[in-house]
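Entry 14. Ran structure prediction on the chain below.
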Amino acid sequence: MAIPKVRSVAQIKKTLTASQAPRRRNIQKMIAAERKQQAADIKGLEATQRKSFGNITQGASNRGLLFSGIPLGEQAEYTATQFLPAVARRKTQGAGTIGDLRSSLLSLNEDALARAISIQEREKDRRFQALEAQKAREAAEREAARARAAARAASGGGFSPTLGFDPTTATGGGGGQEKQRAMADVGQLMNRKGTADFYREIQAINQSAGYGNQYDKMKLQLLRSSLPGMFQNNKLNTGYVSRLINLVSNPHQNMRGGSW
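Output, structure tokens:
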């Protein structure tokens, strides 16, 4: 199973913003429509003003006062008390409407960002769970491999560092539980193969087996099955092992004698 990827917040937000495009276009259209309507309403107020000025002039003429000139005072009073307040109210109304619509656009941006952060957190959780599941599967596979190796060990098979015990190379000796433990110890030792500590440990096991330690004899038998090149006549080639220790401890020196 592929491990889920985690997208950046910007990548997720871009996708969400694209999905909001129809709503954004609608709000922009509403803003444009409000500006157009406001301009039309103000033109209507200007037309009403001109008509009112005509009415004022006609009234003055009817009263025989036109000889005094255009009644600017009445026109100014109309402008101050009627026209300008009406224009101000309409502009205030338009500013409020447009402000609300712009707030809606801002809310869409904030919503997209919040949702992007939330989605990324869920993606992180899914990735973490997938990684943990993968680790669990790998651990289970390793445990199953150890169990199969232990089962072969209990049947008295021979040791292979990669395959566990192999009945075709069995040499016998020792109980099943002891072989399982020896197999685990040698398996851990093989993980250090190629290091000076690895070869020194083999020397120590060989020396202990020589003193009669049955458990180390069993480990030495497993090592002989796994590393036949290090043994001659079923005995550890101690000189060769010593040269290997010297080689890995002093890599710039050439090893003379023996073979890998």
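The chain has seven helices and four strands. Will compare against last week's run tomorrow.
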